[in-house]
Amino acid sequence: MKPPVHIDPKRMLRWVLQGVALAGVATAVVFFFTVRPETWAHLRDFNPWWVPLLMGLIFVAWACNGARVWLFCRALGHPLRYRTALQASMSQEFGVAATPAGIGGAVIRLTLLKRAGVPVAHGGSMLASDAAIDVLFFALLAPFAAWVLLHDAIFARLLERLDSRVVLPGFLAVLAGAALLVVLLRSAWFHRLVERLAGATPFGRSKRLPARHRFLRRATARTLRRMREALALLWGRRKSALVLNFLLAAVQWTCRYSLLPLILWAVHSPVNPVPLFLAQGLLFMLSMLVVVPGGGGAVEVLAALILPAFVPVALVGTVVLLWRLLTFYLYLIGGGTAFFLAVRQRRLDAGPGEPGR
Predict the structure, then answer these.
(1) At what angle do helices 313-324 and 9-34 cross, to 10 degrees?
(2) Cα atoms found within 13 Å of the Cα of residue 328, Cβ hemisphere only
(3) CA-CA distance, 284 to 38, in Å (whole number)?
(4) 319, exposed or middle or buried, with CB in 10 Å at 0-12, 13-18, 19+?
């Protein structure tokens, strides 16, 4: 089976430049509107020894992600070298950061693994299994995070400002809406209605929206089926691989989401890290929904709106800049290096004896 999409390095480079330009403009705007005379005094107090620690967390997260790919490949009978697995995982991170809605991440990983001898079906199953383990980690973390949030001083002050007569009905409405959405997504008549409405307008017919909707349904069902099959296979063959993958996922996400709290500690604004874990998760999901590379600057702007609850306004621009340098630009540099080395080695667009495209 061939990789599902041809990867064009030139198009990837254009996306990277677009994402960097938009994120850079957004960061500059945030910094311009939040800089104060005391900003420079705070920066002089910044201890440069925090930089190796913060970058070390990124490297540990990369190593864990590569180890997860290597572990699952070996568990499914593909004795992949760790170096190849690390290259695939870092290239995937680059694809997520550099392409609109992160669509290139999965394609790059599947293509690299295919060149290394891992069938696309197995590669897709591993992707789905990784996603399931990530969801499990955050699901297990959620009750603990909720308990910590209820005992957090900042969150408590926010709740005090809200009317309890509004909070409880609003919470129940969100739960009811989520339950209704699940029921609708599982019903065939709802999808038929969506297809009819999508094809009822000239725009929907010209953009083939009903066909796109059917494709999305089949792709989602296929991903869920692969997820169940891969997890069942690994549970039957190698329970230890699943447990170790879960532990690696816990270390990976803890390292990545510890960056923002540690940056605040570095600028002498110690905070409870759990609310910032939640905020970073929401911002990451938002960057996936915005169909522009790197979130199109929306991540920087929203972070600037959230951070005044944790740090003085004079530090918001500095914190946003440091945080995005580590979580966006460094991922572009590290993952991009791995990706373009893979292209140069003819692992993406040319097999043995074939000319590069």
Answers:
(1) 170
(2) 30
(3) 30
(4) buried
Which of 277, 316, 278 is closest to 300 using CA atoms?
Answer: 316
Contact 80, 73 (CB under 8 A): yes
Angle (nearest 5°) at CA 46 between 42 and 49: 175
**Strand ranges (E), 178-323:** none
- Is 213 strand, coil or helix? helix
Instruction: Decide if pLDDT at 118 tops 80.
Output: yes
**3-class SS of residue 270:** coil
How far is Cα of residue 2 from the mean position of the Cα atoms in its chain? Answer: 26
Q: Read off the pTM.
A: 0.80
Q: How far apart are CA 137 and CA 145, in angstroms?
A: 12
For Cα atoms 224, 106, 60, give the angle at the middle one, nearest 5 degrees. Answer: 105
Name the residue among 242, 212, 215 with its Cα closest to residue 134.
Answer: 242
Q: Which amino acid belongs to residue 338? A: A
Number of helices and strands in the chain (H, E):
17, 0
Q: Give, rounded to a whole angstrom, the gap between the first and last alpha carbons of the chain.
A: 19
Write out pLDDT tens, residues 50-104.
899 999 999 999 999 999 999 988 888 888 899 999 999 999 999 888 887 677 8
Q: What are phi and psi of 2, to 5 degrees?
A: -85, 155
Residue 277: other Cβ atoms inside 10 A: 22
**Torsion over CA of 223, 226, 232 and 238, rounded to 10 degrees?**
-110
* Closest by CA position to 257, among listed 280, 230, 235, 234: 280
Residue with tokens 């041809």: 6
